[in-house]
Amino acid sequence: MSLKQRAILMIASGALLLAGLAWAGAQPAHAQDPGNDGCLACHGQPGMQATLPSGEVIYLTVDAGVYNASVHGQAGQACIECHPDVDLQAHPKGDTAWSDLGVRTHRDLSSLLYRDACVECHQDQYADNLDGVHQQAIAAGDEAAAICTDCHGTHNITDPRQPLSKGSQMCERCHSEIYELYKESVHGGALLGEGNGDVPSCTACHSVHDTQGPLGDTADSNFHLSSPELCRKCHSDTALMAKYGLTADVYDTYVADFHGTTVAVFEKQAPGQETNKAVCIDCHGVHDMRKVDDPESAVIKENLLVTCQKCHPGASANFPTSWIGHYRPDAKRAPLVFFVNLFYWILIPAVLGLMIVLVAIDARKRIADRGKKEHQHA
Amino acid sequence: MPSTSRFHRFSISDRIEHWLLFASFTLLAVTGLVQQHVDWGVYGAIIRFFGGIENTRTIHHIAAIVLMFETIYHIGIQGYRFFVLRKSPSILPGKNDAVNLVQFFKHGLGLSKNRAEEGHFTFAEKLEYWAVIWGTLVMGITGFMLWNPILTTRLLSGSIIPAAKAAHGKEALLAVLAILIWHLYTVHIRHLNLSMFHGKMTEAEMEDEHPRALADIKAGRFDPRPDPATIRRRQRIYFPIFAVLAAAMLAGVYFFVAYETTAVATAPAAEEVAIYAPYTATPLPTQAPTPSPVPPTITPTPLPGETPLPPAADTWQNGIGELVQTKCGACHSAAAPMGGLDVTSYQVALKGGSTGPGIVPGEAGTSLFVSRQTSGKHPGMFSAEELQRILGWIEAGAPE
What we know:
The structure holds 2 protein chains of 2 kinds. Chain A is an all-alpha fold. Chain A has helices at 3-26, 28-31, 35-43, 64-69, 71-74, 79-82, 97-100, 106-114, 123-130, 133-139, 148-152, 166-172, 176-184, 186-194, 202-206, 223-235, 238-243, 250-255, 258-269, 280-284, 301-309, 335-377, and strands at residues 49-51, 57-59. A two-stranded antiparallel ribbon of chain A has the order 1-2. In chain A, strand 1 (49-51) and strand 2 form a beta hairpin. The model of chain A is unreliable at 24-31 (pLDDT under 50). Chain B is mostly helical. The radius of gyration of chain B is 54 Å and the shape is rod-shaped. The chains are: A mainly alpha, B mainly alpha. The interface between A and B is large, with 95 and 79 residues.
């Protein structure tokens, strides 16, 4: 056996050995599943904690009662199904192990444990999430951006739709200021206060996993520009609006005016375009939109001038009345417009009618005369 | 043949005016009408053609400025003809036009053999001319209001703006349809009148459309041109006056176009709020190690002369094994020997785990079990009493 052959044999057997070890290393977790009771024997004890290299103290106790009441507990999910990487041979490893895992802070640990744990069972939600603002922020290096467990929790996960307010309260944890505004709005008050499912929750406008926000704008999508379509979904629904005594004309009357015309064309032709024209939320408020007769509404008569002045700094007291207010112009709401329209609906047929009569008489006469002339020539 | 003679109809200046009006009117009509129904497919395509809605509006505004310049020019020219050349203002509607209109009906309906005796401008042309004047006025005034809504609402009620918009749109519709019906028929369909291209009409055309004017020309009845000295004298008065007037009108156009900045160029943020405002994490509920309440021990007072019996010696079978399995078995069992340690039987327990034997009989000091437990960092911990008991058992040689 030559030196070369021996070297190849050694490398090959070394590789075989490594592969074997890797295979063995991949197996033992399931083979030696201690069962949830096994984990809880330690992790069910109160006061279990550890100190991370950052100095943060983490709490390692899992409340068996809470877990068993969670969706996963109810389904009989085993601890190691979400924690498959626990090396039972070397568990617990002690405080020195954190740096080996690359974990310094609590956030590092959460990311390590949970960023990719849920995809095993929840592929669709995970895939949607890749398109969302949170994942984009993570990809851009923002460690604080939400991962699955930041919204859903860990061992205490319950149905995010039960009660209806729960989903929005998930967002509250990181978006507390926005939530405070939303809570006071006509929508938030109905959802959080009355459990009304007709009003939009956070996710109704921002999507669930492929979360979109005004900072996620691309060349093909501009949240500000497309937002009227969100409002339209409910506010053009005649049956739904009738239930609350609201008009379903708001979108159509908006598009019929300067702001809406521009926005509608931009939305269609240049969806990534920035516009200085107001969309629904610019006048009505973003998260704190109120009933139009609420004294704090941005569009109630007393507040409207200030609202207009945001974009029209020179506007004076009469300016706001140039907006008819989402009404179709009738004799009562906008008499001047109504009578101008009426004037033209009389003038236009009258003038055009006269012209058509004159043209018809002249044409008939000329055709008749030409026929006569040709007849004479013949 | 008389039909070969050509009669002067429009001067170069007239023709330039016509084409300026044609260009600005067409552009205004197209770029304006499409704004009324942006959701119509063809209109959307036209908006796209002009480079989007904002560009379409800019082009509409530029065409409006061209029309305003043309209007000033028209006023200047007509003023010159009236005040300097003293031509009769034949475009003004008169009694004749009513007579001609009646005659037009009579002839057209076959009630009279005689055609209307039209002069230099037919009643049809006057109708169109004054319609353009009316339309330009309406569009100019309402257009000013839409272009300068802030200034307008400082002086007038706000409701004038949507009314102006309604009038601007409807008047546009009227103007476009009137041109399509009236102008197209009278100038292009009934016979193709090309006098706006070359400025001339044939005798036959004159005979057909302007018989009285033709008769006047043939009879030499037309406004005589004043002598050059008179013209120069009148010019010296007219030019300065019109210069001032034109300057005022141009200033008006500038005011119209540039006075008002209606809206800010960049919309302010719709909401000022911190997007990321996490609640401060509640400190995790670390439980202070509460010492288990020590039951009061009642030490029986030994009776005089009585020697207390020594406690029964601990063995693995007698107590120690059960204690260790209860406390350690969950993690260190045959099924899940964490760290390689299994305490399900005496033999395997003594063998220890991957880091070595946990129990060295007779040597509590070197037993890993002891060092782990005394370090206080092992997840499962024995109480101090239990630990003492196990230490005693190891020191006693860890009997089975």
